[in-house]
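Quick review question:
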């Protein structure tokens, strides 16, 4: 069968490439054409557009690149028509992909959506488009199946592909002691600082995270640096505080971490799945926060708490994200009794996520429906 797959970000490239591996096992005639990245191309796909040319973040950047965005949409429609796939598989990336879902549906093509947009948090009007234009949803968070059912949409819960990605990383990782030596980390217990991947959030988060460091000389604090951010940017914030910096090593850092301070996002789930007690942090501009508070309708900001539907990790949001409160919550995750409870909750989290094999489960369901 012919598969046209659209992923617009690095994470989408990773998860789509694993899905493709699963499809190839079941469909010996599988032919792939895609928008994505090197990992999807590595699975044998004809790469039409790379995600690095598609990622426009923020209102101002979208406006500045509006002509390029519309040009990509026009090209994608033409390319789909020329390829005539058996199915169009959309991977997250909703701004672009929901437009392509409408187009593909209008052309009489089968449309599958793998990794749902976060419509349960905001822009719930997108559910109407999904119901109208998508033939089948394959969701990775357990509560999403129930969410879609309320709107009369059948969705398959396949488990979270991050479990598979972490398992693959562990095979590559090797000896944790080698990671310590390579990055000049001593034997003191490590506290991982994950301040995010964008300059604005890093500036706000890391400044507060670093402020508690002098009070804990028994630990070594290590920042997981984002590859796209220069070392000098981090050094300006860290100053003369005793904090180390590691690039391209988030997984290795979490393997050896005793605890972590983590900016809200997928990293909160990755940290929990790697059994590291954490405090979740979020601090934005007051203007952005006030808007978000009005449009985002969720009880929690971390995926860990959202999945469990109860608070198992502490969330310090906006004004609560300050030195005093961070120190209080950090002390709690160092306490032995609290840590045992966290580890039990993490075990329940892994069970709720359905175990490993999400990509192969999704692939089997897709081939079955086709």
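Suggested answer, residue by residue:
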């Amino acid at each position: 069968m012919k598969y046209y797959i659209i992923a617009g970000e690095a994470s989408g490239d990773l998860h789509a490439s694993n899905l493709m591996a699963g499809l190839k096992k079941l469909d010996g005639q599988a032919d792939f054409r895609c928008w994505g990245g090197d990992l999807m191309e590595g699975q044998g796909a004809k790469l039409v557009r790379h995600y690095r040319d598609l990622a426009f973040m923020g209102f101002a950047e979208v406006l500045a690149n509006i002509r390029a965005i519309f040009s990509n949409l026009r090209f994608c429609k033409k390319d789909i028509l020329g390829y005539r796939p058996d199915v169009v598989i959309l991977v997250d990336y909703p701004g672009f992909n929901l437009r392509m879902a409408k187009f593909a549906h209008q052309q009489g093509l089968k449309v599958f959506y793998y990794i749902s947009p976060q419509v349960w948090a905001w822009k719930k009007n997108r559910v109407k488009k999904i119901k109208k234009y998508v033939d089948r949803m394959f969701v990775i968070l357990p509560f999403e199946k129930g969410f879609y059912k309320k709107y009369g949409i059948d969705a398959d819960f396949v488990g979270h592909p991050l479990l598979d990605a972490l398992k693959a990383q562990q095979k590559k990782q090797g000896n944790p002691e080698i990671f310590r030596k390579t990055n000049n980390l001593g034997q003191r217990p490590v506290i991982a600082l994950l301040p995010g991947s964008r300059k604005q959030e890093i500036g706000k988060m890391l400044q507060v995270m670093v402020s508690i460091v002098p009070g804990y000389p028994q630990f070594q604090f290590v920042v997981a640096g984002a590859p796209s951010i220069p070392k000098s940017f981090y050094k300006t914030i860290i100053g003369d505080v005793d904090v180390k910096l590691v690039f391209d090593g988030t997984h290795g850092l979490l393997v050896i971490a005793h605890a972590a301070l983590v900016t809200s996002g997928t990293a909160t789930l990755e940290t929990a799945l790697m059994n590291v007690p954490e405090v979740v942090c979020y601090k934005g501009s007051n203007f952005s926060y006030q808007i978000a508070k009005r449009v985002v309708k969720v009880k929690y900001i971390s995926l860990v708490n959202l999945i469990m539907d109860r608070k198992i990790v502490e969330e310090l949001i906006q004004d609560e994200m300050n030195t005093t409160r961070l120190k209080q919550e950090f002390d709690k995750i160092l306490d032995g009794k609290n840590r045992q409870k966290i580890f039990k909750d993490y075990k329940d989290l892994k069970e709720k996520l359905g175990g490993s094999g999400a990509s192969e489960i999704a692939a089997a369901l897709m081939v079955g429906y086709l």
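Why it works: The radius of gyration is 21 Å. The mean pLDDT is 89.
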